[in-house]
Design brief:
By secondary structure, this protein is mainly beta. The chain has two domains: about 160 residues, Sandwich (Jelly Rolls), CATH 2.60.120.260; about 350 residues, Glycosyl hydrolase domain, family 43 (Tachylectin-2, Chain A), CATH 2.115.10.20. It contains five helices and 33 strands. The strands form eight sheets. Strands 2, 3, 4, 28, 29, 31, 32 and 33 form an eight-stranded antiparallel beta sheet that branches.
Length: about 525
């Protein structure tokens, strides 16, 4: 039963009236809450602060975007079958192995790793190149390319749907592009290397303008219990701009079985609506591995027609284009610059966007300030108990092109940050399932964090008030919050509450209620 530290006389009379009418205190609280704020239900899910879902108000605190630190070079172009354009596409974690798919001479190739840090290029023995099959080229079960090297690259996805046929765990798409229509051909594989067609007929046919002109994102959603596909399309800008006629954007499709798909739904972007303020070249939307109801998009942002380098600067910097399929490779390379931004969605046709700022910047060095560089591969994965990694294309379109690993703290995309002067976070009313509250946080040596459990109306609950909370300081991925009456928290499971965090020189990354006893 909820027990506030103090009940104003008016509230006592209200509760007494409900009790006399035969309605319990829990029902009374729910009625009060329903008349003001909707009650969220988070169960025992982990909640990150990558959107405003759980946050009602901030006082002296703010949402803080975090940038990953660059780590070691993961995959570079160092084999004879890797020529010309070279881009990483995606990283898939499959049990105890990682697969990094990339373009090698516009053929799909793969690197493998046991830890996501050290990579090797296996000799798959599938596709012949210059008289040898000793390469890492991905192909069909009969040793051919899935699609011609002059066509858009295949894209590979791991199907995590429970009960999926082991011989069909991996799915892939190839495209047939015809005037006014794009057709999507489906493929399956047991190992992610050798594929066979699902059927001859396309899985998807669409006349949506610019559809599938980029790398797409497909996954089985445990939250929605269906397959979800995020694809690129284009919006004709009005009035026409000859230098920038189309805005790359994102649409969404869903399917219960991969064979039948709903029509594309155009995504909206924060407060911007259907027309995003920037080009989303590859949306790279995936469920977050510790909170799969939240989809994180580490989207490739192209700054169209914004040249960071002059031709003379590019030559002086030693930039050596690798493309041979355009008239002036250097001019193409320095015409734009690019980076990665972050958006999130919880399903549906809307991206939340707390930040317009880049999460991955080009950084120092002229070779990174070129067109379509600094794009993050699809995939955000744990690479230790305290860290998670993304993989970023660098030196795009050059002989020195490569993929570099970047590292975040676990859950560390965004935090609620409190400065030295201190501040607070108040959540919306919600229900939870569990016996204890765990937080991912970090403070300075003099920083601190305390948590108060409140009624839906915002009154402290006896034994779980701010003064009852043991001071928290340090740096932990998982810390159990303790109060004088910690055992009382379990009794509130399923009832509406709020949380209030009071912080100083601290960051709060995530929270989760756990049913497990310590």
């Amino acid at each position: 039963m909820l027990r506030p530290v103090r009940k104003p006389r008016r509230v006592v009379r209200l509760v007494a009236a409900f009790l006399l009418s035969g309605i319990g205190l829990y029902e009374a609280t729910s009625v009060c809450c329903a008349q003001s704020d909707p009650v969220l239900s988070i169960g025992s899910r982990r909640e990150l602060f990558v959107d405003r879902y759980l946050v009602e108000s901030l006082a002296g605190t703010r949402f803080q975007l975090h940038h990953p630190r660059p780590a070691e070079l993961a995959v570079e172009r160092d084999q004879p079958w890797e020529q010309r354009m070279y881009n990483g596409i995606s990283v898939i974690k499959d049990g105890d192995r990682f697969l990094l798919y990339y373009s090698a001479l516009n053929r799909l190739a793969v690197a493998v790793s046991s830890d996501g840090i050290q990579w090797r290029k296996p000799e798959l023995g599938l596709v012949e190149w210059e008289g040898s099959r000793g390469n890492s080229l991905v192909g069909t079960v009969d040793g051919q390319l899935m699609i011609g090297a002059d066509k858009p690259l295949p894209e590979v996805f791991l199907d995590r749907r429970p009960g999926v046929d082991p011989d069909r765990r991996f799915k892939a798409f190839t495209l047939i592009e015809e005037p006014g229509v794009t057709k999507v051909i489906g493929w399956v594989s047991a190992d992610g290397f050798a594929f066979r067609k699902i059927r001859e007929q396309p899985l998807i046919e669409t006349s949506m303008y610019g559809a599938f002109d980029g790398f797409e994102s497909l996954f089985w959603s445990t939250a929605e219990q269906r397959y979800v596909l995020y694809l690129r399309y284009a919006i004709r800008v009005s009035p026409p701009n000859p230098k920038d006629p189309n805005r790359r954007s994102v649409a969404r499709m869903t399917s219960p079985d991969l064979l039948t798909w709903q029509e594309p739904q155009r995504m909206t972007f924060g407060d911007a609506g259907l027309l995003p303020p920037d080009h989303h070249y590859n949306n790279q939307t995936t469920p977050y591995f510790r909170a799969p109801h939240i989809y994180v998009a580490l989207s490739s942002r192209l700054s169209q027609q914004r040249a960071a380098l002059t031709r003379a600067q590019a030559v002086a910097a030693g930039i050596q284009p690798a493309r041979v399929d355009v008239a002036d490779p250097l001019e193409w390379l320095i015409a734009d610059c690019a980076d990665t931004v972050m958006m999130t969605t919880r399903g549906g046709d809307h991206y939340d966007r707390l930040f317009q700022e880049a999460v991955v910047r080009p950084g120092p060095g002229a070779k990174n300030w070129v067109s379509r560089s600094n794009y993050t591969l699809r995939g955000l994965h744990p690479t230790s108990s305290t860290e998670m990694s993304i993989y970023v294309n660098r030196h795009n379109g050059q002989r020195s092109s490569h993929v570099r690993r970047y590292v975040f703290r676990t859950d560390g995309l965004v935090s609620i940050h409190a400065p030295f002067e201190g501040g607070s976070l108040q959540t919306r009313p919600f229900t939870f399932a569990g016996k204890r509250l765990q937080i991912n946080y970090a403070t300075s040596a003099i920083g601190s964090l305390r948590v108060e459990v409140q009624t839906p109306e915002g009154r402290p609950i006896e034994g779980l008030a701010l003064a009852d909370c043991a001071e928290i300081f340090g740096d932990e991925i998982s810390r159990t919050v303790r109060w004088k009456s910690s055992a009382q928290l379990a009794a509130l499971s399923g009832q509406p509450i709020r949380l209030r965090f009071v912080m100083r020189d601290a960051d709060l990354y995530s929270l989760k209620f756990s049913a497990e006893q310590e």
